[in-house]
Structures are given as C-alpha cells and as structure tokens.
Amino acid sequence: MKAYSISDSIYAVHADIETTDLFEGIWPIPQGVSLNSYVVTGEKIALIDLFRDWSDASGQVEKALVSVGLNFGSIDYLILNHLEPDHTGWLREFRERNPRAEILATAKGINLVKSFFHIDQGLRVVRDGDTLDLGHGKILTFFETPNIHWPETMVTWEPLSGTVFSCDAFGSFGALGDRIFDDQFTPEELAFFEKETLRYYANIVSSFSNFVERGIQKLAGLPIKVVAPSHGMIWRKKPQAIIDRYLRYASYAKGPAEKEIAVIWGSMYGNTKQGLDAVIRGIESQGVPYSLHRVPDENVSWVLADAYKSAGLVLAMPTYEYAMFPPMAYVLDIFRRKHIYGKTVLRIGSWGWVGGAKKEYEAAIEGLKWTSHDALEWAGAPGAEDLAALEEAGKKLAQAIKEG
C-alpha cells in the first residue's frame, strides 16, 4: 500500500476492506469498500479522517504514510469530518501512538469524541468558516454540513488544490486496489462504481436527501477541482460528475424518479409467482424497463437501491398466517426507514384459507405518499380471469410510469 499524490502537498492514504462483515452491520459489501484518509502537509501536518481497524486498516494506512516519509507520530492535527466508527474506531489507538496531535471537529463531533472515546484533552471545536493554517500557504477551511449523514458532519476545503474532503458525502461501496482516481478506471469499471454509488446512497444517505441538497448548495461557490470522499474513488477529472450524481439521487426522494419499475416479490409455493408472471407480461408490453428482486433470496440492500431510483413498484407477496409475507414486511420497514417516498405501486398476492395482508400492508406504507393502484389478490392458484386481470394491471402500471 502506498500514498497517492493529489497535489505536491496532499496525499490520499487508503485501506481496502474486503470482508464478509456487513457494513453498518446490515449491508453486504461483496466487492469491499475503501476507507480513505488524507494528509495535507505544510509546516504542520494534518490527517483528515481516520478509520476503524478493519482488515488491518491501520497497517495499510501506516504503510502508505511511510511511503512518503511519514508515520502516525508525524501528525500535528487530526481532523474528523464525521464521527461514525468506520472513520474513528481507531482513535484511541491513534491517541496512544500520538498523544500530542490536536483533534478538530464540530462542536457535536467533539462531544462524540468525549462520549465515544473518553478523550477530553487536546480537542478543538471548529465552526462554519473557521480555518486552520498549516503554514507554507496551506490553509484549511471547515464547512458544517449537518446530517450527511450524522448531525456532526462537516467538510474540509483546501483552496490551492481545489480539493474538498467530503467524508461520507460523494462516497461509494467498492474496494479500490492500486487505482484511486476516476480517470484511472475503464468505462466498465466506472459503470460498476456507479451502481455501487447508488447502492451506497440508497443504503446510507437516502434518508437525509434534503441535507445533501443543502450541503451541495453550500459548496456551490467553491471552485472544486477534486472531490475526495472517505469511501470510493477520488474525482479529479470530472469532479462535477459525482456532485451531479448525488444531486440526482437526492431528487429521487421527492420525485421524479427514473421511469422504471422495481419488481419485488416472494412466493411460498409458486401461486404468487404465477400471478407475477402475468403482471410482468403487461409491463413488457409497454416497453418499460424493470428490475426483478426476489425476497428473502436477495439482500434488501440491492432491493433498496433499485426501489429508490424507480418511479414504480410491484410488490408481490402471499398472505402468511393472516398477515404479510414476513420477508416483504421487513422490506417495507426498510422502505419506511429510508424514506422511499412518492412511488406508484401495484400490490398483488395469493392467499390460502383466508386473506389478511391488506391491513398490515396499509399500516406499513402509511406516510410513504404512494399512489396505489388497486390491489389484486386471489385464493390459491390464479385462474384465467385472474391472469388476464393481472396482465392488464401490469400494463396500466407501466403506462402510468411512462406518462408520469
């Protein structure tokens, strides 16, 4: 592992995390994730953002520091843009290695340093517009960007290089390897990272889309040349591309979303699946793109990503013991938590001896501001009339998405 130069005095030092652990204890990362820290050098040296010691992140970052003649003891200032443990979990060990470094964060961030790590010395609160002069013309400016995605978050700005250190903002899943800049990846690799950026946004940030828009608006006057997040690639060729992408993702929270349909389904014995096949025939007749997700076979992380970006949803589930199919109930709970608002939705499903999903379903979606098409339910296997009605329902949903 080595450091990568952003400018003659700024380096990226990152750790690639490749693990079967779940990110935040929820989200799979089969292609890993990067934990990016940054070094800014003047007369004094600042380290921006830390990491948790996950997949030997400390060893990876230390090797990168050594590659440019530094180590953890060289650091004069540790700047914490965000206090979530994936960016601070190694703070106590850092403090033991370097007791003299001053720790800078927002007021709420400093409170978390005290409560999480029981450190109460060598701390400095920084507020919106405050600066840190490192010497040799290197001056860092701090801008508070609360709720991207914790209340204490901020970004750090270095004007000579035009670099914004944005922590979770503009981040992505996916390990980086020995390339870290946007202009070093092939179009196919960039397409992969675009999908992982959407999944990261939907999983981690989507609940805070209003704050994403406010944060980007706050930075709008800066001549940004480099976007340096703490997860994912560093954008130096097309920094506006990732900013625009995040703005587009934020817009999905209130519409319009993409003219696509996310089909989410579960079936116990194939009866609901038969009905769903008819719905899909109706969708396909209108040429509307759709994604297909079976639960619980597929983790909700990918379900959430496609549901978040799609204007339409199909929810296909059987009644299970007088209520919703439990894996679908979990999906809807995640939708509620992640603010999957403003969708046009068709619900279908079979039942055995009696129905019962309707009451629980309506309670689960209350507050999501969905436009619901008439639900279709049937006993056991669908008959010819059921299948005709289901195909027509799929057609009407697709038409509504096209015209919306």
* Rg: 24 Å
Number of helices: 12
CATH class of the largest domain: Alpha Beta
Mean pLDDT: 96
Number of domains: 2
The name of the CATH superfamily of the largest domain reads Ribonuclease Z/Hydroxyacylglutathione hydrolase-like
Gap between N and C termini, in Å? 49 Å
Shape call: elongated
Strand order of the largest sheet: 1-2-3-4-5-6-7
Stated plainly, the CATH topology of the largest domain is called Metallo-beta-lactamase, Chain A
CATH architecture tag of the largest domain: 4-Layer Sandwich
Relative helix content: 25-40%
Strand content: 15-25%
**In terms of structural class, how would the helical and strand content be classed?**
alpha/beta
Strand segment count: 20
| Poorly predicted sequence stretches spanning 5 or more consecutive residues | none
User: How many strands, what sense, and barrel or not for the largest sheet?
Assistant: 7 strands, mixed
